[in-house]
């Protein structure tokens, strides 16, 4: 098969997500084409891929529509991996191929940015590289409108397609590539806003891994584990299905005129629910998401948080919310995924700003004279306690609660190390100062009636009586 898709990124998420969709379409004979991957940074992964002729194993584990799933499948959608650092000329040649249809990327949030003084001949940023490839393609086909590509960014950034297009245009202007190219770019190339959702954890323990290798009959160093659930929401019309055959007849792919409701629902319920509940679960003695879902009172807290305070005020179709919450809870109960809570605490302060603060705003807009959201207050109080660093070594600040010593991987860790008061009677003022910090939240959360007091009350209860006292008997789902 010819190479029809150029993919920036060789990591496990795209292997379990986009590449899996393409492979299924190939197996169903609804699509003919293969993926050429681009390794943006030097690693041994490109060599492994090419040694295995682009093949790797996808291990799907968890709850599906027919109960628990535990399957091993060989993905054969990848033709080869090219290195951006050593094979750039070959990549530019591939961009000129008449068979090329789409570009897929997952370069992380940092990847969607420009590099100062980037060179058109050897660009370093992803938008710069994409701009160079599109320019080479436009010139090769005399800017024929039919030779534009479909760009599908999978980075978890709001309006990622619009952002990437603007960056490519800005880079083209920096390089003075001309109005003809910019006009062709505008009228031929489709930059889709997307939302991607699938849990792709690391490998299981060695015993499980060796059992899988025994079942396969060989050792696959590219083996990739994922859950059954997947969602690829793409902001486009149905014509895109005909243009890109791998989007046809695929469970989990949604073409929609507006991807925003899907994004809001995921960010606030799944991601926001994680951000609020993880410190609560840690202080209750849990180590993984599955531990939290098995814990009698923590699981009650999580479900009531989603069903009574986050879900009802989402600015989306209310009929879609309860089924989505059911899916989220089922995914978190996946017995095969051991998602460590401490890993989810990475950059919790920033996550709260973008995943939880919008929920607080909408809550008070819906209930301007109501009582503050107590379950959200519990989560923020537990986060404040988690951010109480009390020791530092090797450049890492640690927090201690009972017998646990946990690292704080947060850009604001040092600020809180000095911010947290040494004396208990100063804690109330500390909470008010944090809640009113516009640098942290973009607004003052202290302006919402009763919210800061609710956070302080819950924090005081956790400090003096423990998290179990806060949760027990008070947070059942309604």
The biggest sheet, with number of strands, parallel, antiparallel or mixed sense and barrel status, is: 6 strands, parallel
- The rounded Rg comes to 24 Å
Could you give the order of strands across the largest sheet? 5-2-1-6-7-8
Indicate the proportion of strand residues.
Answer: 15-25%
Number of strands: 15
* Unreliable parts: none
Task: Find the structural class using helix and strand composition.
Answer: alpha/beta
Principal-axes geometry comes out as globular
Please tell me the overall pLDDT: 93
Number of helices: 23
The percentage helix is 40-55%
Distance between the termini: 55 Å
Q: Tags for this entry?
A:
single chain, 478 residues, alpha/beta, 6-stranded parallel beta sheet, 3-stranded mixed beta sheet, 15 strands, 16% strand, globular
Structural features, described:
By secondary structure, the protein is of the alpha/beta class. Helix content is 46%, strand content 16%. It is built from 23 helices and 15 strands. The strands form four sheets. A six-stranded parallel beta sheet has the order 5-2-1-6-7-8, sandwiched between helices. The chain has a three-stranded mixed beta sheet with strand order 4-3-10. Helix 4 packs across helix 6 (126-140).
